[in-house]
Design brief:
Helix 2 (36-46) packs parallel to helix 3 (62-70). The longest helix has 14 residues, at 107-120. A five-stranded parallel sheet has the order 2-1-3-4-5, sandwiched between helices. Helices cover 42% and strands 21% of the residues. The chain is globular. With 131 residues, the chain is of the alpha/beta class. The chain has helices at 11-21, 36-46, 62-70, 87-96, 107-120; strands at residues 2-7, 27-33, 50-54, 77-82, 100-103. Residues 125-131 have low confidence and may be disordered. Helix 4 (87-96) links the parallel strand 4 and strand 5. It starts with a strand and ends in an 11-residue tail after the last helix. It has one domain (2-120): Rossmann fold, CATH 3.40.50.2300.
Length: 131
C-alpha cells in the first residue's frame, strides 16, 4: 500500500483527485494539505510515500516545499501537479529530482498510470521515469 499526501489550495481539485485515486486499490490518501506549511507538517506526521504537490500556492509554493522535503534523510517521492504546464516548471521539477510533473488538465490520463508504476515498483522506490 502506497501512502499519499495531497497538497493543493483548491478543495474542488483535491476532491477530484481523491475520487480518481480511489480506483487504485494499493494507494491510500493519508492526509491533505492546503498550503506549503501545512504540507510539511502533514508529511512529518504521516510519513507518506508519495506527495502530490501543487506548484502555485499562496505563501510557501510547491517548489519551496519540495526543496525542504528533498533535504530530509528519507524524503517522499514527489509529483508536481499544476495548471501551469510550462517548460520552466518542468525544468524546475527535473532539477529537483522529483518523480514527475503532471498537468492538472491531463491528470486523469497521466497521474493514475504514474502511481500504478510506483506501486508496482515497490512503493517509495523511484520508477526512474518522469511524467
Amino acid at each position: 500500500m502506497i501512502k499519499i499526501l495531497l497538497v493543493d489550495d483548491n478543495p474542488t481539485f483535491l476532491a477530484a483527485v481523491i475520487k480518481y485515486l480511489a480506483m487504485l486499490p494499493d494507494a491510500q490518501v493519508v492526509a491533505q494539505a492546503h498550503d506549503g506549511h501545512e504540507a510539511l507538517a502533514q508529511a512529518t506526521q504521516c510519513q507518506p510515500d508519495l506527495v502530490l504537490l501543487d506548484i502555485m500556492m499562496p505563501g510557501m509554493n510547491g517548489l519551496e516545499v519540495a526543496t525542504v522535503m528533498q533535504s530530509w534523510p528519507q524524503p517522499p517521492q514527489i509529483v508536481f501537479l499544476s495548471m501551469h504546464d510550462t517548460a520552466a516548471y518542468r525544468l524546475a521539477a527535473q532539477e529537483l529530482g522529483v518523480l514527475g510533473f503532471v498537468s492538472k488538465t491531463n491528470f486523469v490520463l497521466d497521474l493514475l498510470p504514474l502511481i500504478a508504476r510506483l506501486v508496482a515498483a515497490g512503493g517509495a522506490q523511484s520508477t526512474g521515469e518522469k511524467a
